[in-house]
Amino acid sequence: MGDDLRTTLTLISTQLAAIIKSVNDEQLKAELESVLENALIVLDKVNDSNFAIVNELCCGDNGPTYDQELIERALKFVDDNLQNSSYSVMQLSKDMNMDRTGLYRKLVALTGHAPTMFIRSIRLKKAVMLLNQKRYSQAEIAEKIGFSNAAYFSKCFKEEYGVSPSNYQPD
Predict the structure, then answer these.
(1) Which residue among 9, 24, 25, 118 has the highest number of C-beta atoms inside a 10 angstrom radius?
(2) pTM given for the model
(3) String of b and e for 112-147 (b: at least 16 CB within 10 Å)?
(4) Are residues 103 and 152 in the same domain?
């Protein structure tokens, strides 16, 4: 879904920019520039790595907005505390202003993941993004995503993706 949307928005943005150059009417030009600006904002959101994660974890366009907002909030809290290896379900539930049981039920219902696995899944998805950049060692990535032990990071990564981080090949 993200790639199709990204391609479509890029095409629309390019075509709108070309049309704007050829328009002489200032009011029409201003309206087209506004449409172009909105398309670029949506394109930035689609290109945002968190957007892809939310779409993957939640039900996409079929899910209620409240549920997507809840996932986005949870994702933001995890993302803000990514390097904090002691960030826990207890802290996430406090940040979300929910009790642990309520958070557990809601995350399981929306994502199929218990909060602990939700946090781990977010960390591992960020690890994949960092691995794709090919700028960091395994130990640096483990530290950046909140694993205090590189061996444990490697074990979790292999459980999630079926291959160790050192053997991971991007799609």
Answers:
(1) 118
(2) 0.62
(3) ebebebbbbbbbbbbbbebbeeeeeebeebbbebbb
(4) yes
- SS3 breakdown of the chain: % helix, strand, coil, rounded to 5? 75, 0, 25
Structural domain range at position 112: 64-167
Do residues 147 and 85 lie in contact, with contact meaning Cβ atoms separated by under 8 Å?
Answer: yes
Name the phi and psi angles at 120, rounded to 5.
Answer: -65, -40
Neighbours of 51 (CB within 10 A): 17
Domain membership flag for residue 56 = no
Co-location of 73 and 42 in the same domain = no
Domain membership flag for residue 90: yes
- The residue among 117, 152, 121 whose CA lies nearest residue 138 is 152
For 148, the 3-state DSSP assignment is coil
Judge whether 40 and 13 are in contact, CB under 8 Å. yes
Tell me the CATH number at 121: 1.10.10.60
Burial of 92 (0-12, 13-18, 19+ CB in 10 A): buried
- In terms of domains, do 117 and 145 share one? yes
In a domain, 84, yes or no: yes
